[in-house]
Design a protein that fits this description.
This protein is α/β, with parallel strands linked by helices and about 250 residues long. Among the domains are: about 70 residues, Beta-grasp domain (Ubiquitin-like (UB roll), Roll); about 80 residues. It is about 25% helix and about 15% strand. The protein has eight helices and twelve strands. The strands form three sheets. A five-stranded mixed sheet has the order 2-1-5-3-4, covered by helices on one side. A four-stranded parallel sheet has the order 7-6-8-9, sandwiched between helices. β3 and β4 form a beta hairpin. α2 crosses α5. The longest helix has 14 residues. About 25% of the residues are buried.
Length: about 250
């Protein structure tokens, strides 16, 4: 008995996510029921959050579309040069503000995004269900390296971070979401995500080390965790990260 089958063609960087990568991006799958196109593309290794447009036999469809024998499915990633919002039935409603929640494996990336001024939550104690709930309830983009996490139907806005090193990760995320024009360097606490404010030296004098008190006069403080910041040697190292994202000096 021959089972029905469908042919899937993946494009762009989605090819790298395939369970059995092939330069052609073509996968043929058999099935014994009438599965949803979401289930089928995720069975190939591609989370639905990575897909920007789905065509079945040339017609745009949603993730709940049911696959039938002989279907030809085209699966497209995010489009850089072309706006397909009018055509896509899988693209979620855009987030109002670009805010993030990062999983436990992306703690340093979360810090770097805060450095750039982006509201980014991260807590190593959160389980997957908590991350998904926070992303949905607070309308945040879920950042993760855990592919199965993004396959959960409750996740509407998520991104699978490809790079291994935090510095490369922040550049990747900034470019993926076109963040350069929204960067507000040093406006958030890298530790707790609070919004920092300028403070008189006298207000934080009791928290300063003797050499810091002697050589610096301009300070900012996070009202949430009370950490104090100034333009020491660490500031120059962090400024280099900002410049890498922006592609030039700040």
């Amino acid at each position: 008995m021959d089972f029905p089958q469908a042919t899937y063609r993946f494009y762009g960087n989605l090819i790298d996510l395939l369970t059995l990568p092939d330069e052609s991006g073509v996968v043929v799958r058999t099935f014994d029921d009438s599965p949803s196109v979401k289930d089928q593309i995720e069975a190939c290794g591609v989370p639905h959050t990575e897909v920007d447009l789905l065509l079945v036999n040339g017609v745009s469809v949603g993730f709940d579309h049911r696959i039938t024998d002989g279907d030809r499915v085209s699966v497209y990633p995010h489009f850089w040069e072309l706006d397909v919002a009018h055509l896509s039935l899988v693209r979620p409603e855009p987030l109002g503000d670009m805010r993030f929640v990062a999983d436990v494996n992306l703690g340093k990336l979360a810090r770097y995004l805060r450095l750039l001024g982006f509201d980014t939550l991260s807590d190593g104690r959160w389980h997957d269900a908590e991350l998904v709930a926070i992303a949905g309830e607070q309308q945040r983009m879920l950042l993760t390296k855990d592919r199965p996490l993004l396959k959960r139907s409750a996740v509407t806005h998520g991104y699978l971070v490809r790079a291994a090193q935090p510095m490369d990760q922040v550049v990747e995320v900034a470019r993926r979401f076109d963040l350069a024009d929204s960067v507000r360097p040093f406006s958030r606490c890298m530790e707790c995500n609070g919004v920092v404010r300028s403070v008189p030296k006298a207000e934080v004098d009791h928290l300063l080390e003797p050499l810091t008190r002697r050589h610096f006069d301009d300070f900012r403080q996070c009202p949430d965790c009370e950490r104090v910041f100034w333009k020491g040697s660490h500031h120059r190292r962090l400024a280099a990260i900002v410049e890498e994202v922006l592609g030039g000096p700040i």
